[in-house]
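Hi there,

I know you've been waiting on this one. I reran it after we fixed the sequence typo, so this is the corrected version. Both the input and the resulting structure follow.
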Amino acid sequence: MIIRNPGMALSNRRFAAVLAVIAGLLCLPHQAEAQRVAKYGADFLAGGVGARALGMGGAAVALTRDVNAAYWNVAGLAGLDYPQFAYMHAERFAGVVSFDYGSAAFPVSDRSTVGLSFFRSGVNDIKNTLDAWDQERDQPKPNPESFFTTFSAADLAIFLGYSRALSENLSVGATAKVIRRSIGDFASAWGYSFDVGVQYRVGRYWLGVNLQDISTMLQSWSVNQSELQNIADVFGDELPEGGTELVLPVARLGSGIVLPMGENSMIVGLDVDVAFDGQRAEVVNLGDVSFHPRLGAEFSYRSVLAFRAGLNRVAYSSDNGIDLTPSVGTGIKLRQVELDYGFGDFAGLVSELGFSHRISLTFSLEQPGLKRQGSE
């Protein structure tokens, strides 16, 4: 946390993180509110996973057919012939927020695939300086650094997915999701929901639908009143008492086309996320419904080198007009290993929040005894 003394200020990056944590604490639902809709209740998952998909602007709902489909569209896990593993690390807000993702998927029959994914997004080593403030004298205590402690504000998620191929061109799937959110010892929440997905191929064209949080995610917050008392004493704010938040469903609609070019190929994808939570930052909004387009392309050279580009976000504000969030990326595939890199501006060309670097590794366990039954 922060005390009111310029000589004890944190660095600019940590200062911004601390303010965000304080705002989060003070905006927690009060008991009297019972349930309320959280516009950004699971936003730490909205950034996406896999440097390949992110380099293409996140246009991946219809096109992803590897282990990362556990996030983008679980129906795509049906495209695996061997067990596959993935890991990604990303730095956001100029390195203040770290994001880690790991996933594993296993074909279990000629038509069925299961996947398990783990996500963590957090701000680590946040300094809590509230104990260094002498409230009676309204100034720092002597040797204030000795009273500093640290904590983390972290969001965790576990996905358990199942996909089944109904035919050569059609697959479906469902994902059970558990969310754990914590702000040090001050507050924590559990959340639960389900996703369902469909992928369908017509010749060179792919279509996909991922209904995210179709059951409506419930996040139940509990608050440690004793830990929060210092915040109320220093800032004079009313203490939150916890409660339940609702994260409304999002319909992610995807399309794509595969264009063979001899030994090379081109993939183009277009997705639209349809949200119902009242966010109004997108270019197209109809009441509380917003439409979030994503566009991306990948050129593959002999299935070894790949070059990607995309638009991850098209936003609008009265101050800046239309604001685009572009992304680029590249990748190399050597036998069973694929290494991908994605680069983009985190929040639009007019933002000063810094760039985002994404590096991901995918490993396919291509052993004869592990190949999906019935695959060629």
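Quick highlight: Residues 1-23, 346-353 have pLDDT under 50 and may be disordered.

Best,
R. S.
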